[in-house]
Amino acid sequence: MPEDGRARERTGARVGLLLTLVLAAVLLTALPDAGDRDDRQNGADCLPHTVASWSADDRLTAEFARYGDDATRGDDWTGGDGTHSVRLPDGRVLWLFSDTYLGQVHGPPNPVGESFTWRDAAAPLVRNSAVVMTGRSLRSTLPAPLFPDPAPGQWRWPVAARVEPRSPGSAERVVRVLLWVRTAGPAPWVYGVPTATEVATLSLPDLRVESVVTVRDEQSVPDPSRRVLFGTTLVEEGGWTYVFGGDDAQAASRPASSAYVARVPEGRLGEPSRWQYWNGSGWAAGARPRAVLGDGLRTGVGSAFSVVRSAGTYVLFTMAAGTAGLTTVTSYWACSPTGPWHGPSGNFGASLPPGQVAAYNPQVHPELGGGGRLVLSYDVNWLETGPTGGAAAQLSRNVSLYRPRFVTLRLTTAR
User: Fold this and answer.
1) How many whole angstroms from its chain centre is CA 14?
2) Cα–Cα distance between 24 and 18 in angstroms, integer?
3) How far apart are CA 74 and CA 63, in angstroms?
4) How far is CA 237 from the centre of its chain?
5) Cβ neighbours of residue 393 under 8 Å, at least 6 residues apart?
6) Which of 24, 295, 304, 371 is the most exposed place for a label (fewest CB within 10 A)?
7) Number of domains in the chain
8) DSSP for 34-48?
9) Contact (Cβ atoms closer than 8 angstroms) between residue 319 and residue 379
10) Tell me: the pLDDT tens digits for 88-120?
């Protein structure tokens, strides 16, 4: 089978597993215990946080629809997931995606007479892409895939990114992008066996990939569900960049995945020797990380989540439990990146198109918020694999099914 066919097959199977994985999660949805509030090592600034209000950000959602539907170019982004972003020094925003459809978008109507914009079933599917936004408008897609496959049967998914000095003390800036390396595998690893965490360096302002270094190779861990990939979200505080990651416990039918955290001196993401991992009692280079959230039964995270810092409190967003996890985002809070984390609480719903669809990968975009507002995206995908043609066919039939949606939310505190 050609490589693009194998990629399309893996993507469809990965989507088909979403429902199984989400239904396997068994998390509590109780409010934080008052008795848990005595761990405020950050002092009075650390208070319980939950979501006070949220509303759909139709403007941002519509901008991605506009750009994806623009057929003036044949090699640009028309849909993708794994939505991450970083603001560049010149004000542009770089959007990073995992599996991405390129090619032309047509219609409506689509070939079966429905009022959907659509793409050809043979449209190119690449493992990652990057789109540049200037002001409030998406402008261009970088040559895709931006990050080439490291080896046959392996691919790279970009996650969180930061602008850093090229070297300590340098005035020249570069973009560091965390990458997840996955390797093709049999069920239940049809969406890839976790393999390694890497950091890529992109030049500025032209966004050319200069180098890729391996931060952590997980191939020596025999159980793939215990392997940890870092970079789903980054938080900078006190001279450190805290890098959060997760395992793939849900792929092995365990109820929930666990969250982990590493730290790197600010500006040193591209230096593997400077990474330290929380081992349960302290930070150590080369240590086997220990989970900071997730007991495998009552609490945990989805495969991708996001963390922000509000005043002295860390707030984590992930998909909710059980069937609610198909449509609902929930949150945890803590006074330290290492926890203890309290929650989940503050659930809010994700607006979805009709059909057998699910939301996943909630990500906060701090560069788009301000004034007490947080902008959060979530990805959307098709779940059904039955007689209607499966996920890949549905994503071509209706291109809106594989694009990010956005909400604006506000947090509140409780003493």
Assistant:
1) 15
2) 10
3) 18
4) 21
5) 121
6) 371
7) 1
8) GGGTT--TTGGG---
9) no
10) 999 999 999 999 999 889 989 888 888 888 998
Q: Which residue has the tokens 């914009």?
A: 117
For residue 334, which amino acid is it?
A: A
Confidence (pTM)? 0.90
Distance, in Å, from the CA atom of 139 to the CA atom of 137, rounded to the nearest integer, reads 6
Q: By residue range, what is the domain housing residue 182?
A: 3-413
User: With 0-12 CB in 10 A as exposed, 13-18 as middle and 19+ as buried, what is 293?
Assistant: buried
Record the tokens describing residue 226, joined without a space: 């215990």
Q: For residue 77, which of 86, 69, 85, 68 has the smallest C-alpha distance?
A: 68
**3-state DSSP call for residue 248?**
coil
Judge whether 144 and 133 are in contact, CB under 8 Å. no
Q: Do 244 and 278 touch, CB atoms closer than 8 A?
A: no
Question: Which stretch of DSSP H or E encloses residue 391?
Answer: helix 390-397
- 12-28 pLDDT tens trace: 445 444 433 343 333 33
- What are the phi and psi torsion angles at 16 (to 5°)? -60, -25
Return phi, psi of residue 65, to 5°: -65, -45
How far apart are alpha carbons 57 and 407 in whole angstroms? 5
Contacts of 168 (CB under 8 A, 6+ apart): 267, 268
Rounded CA gap, 389 and 387, in Å? 5
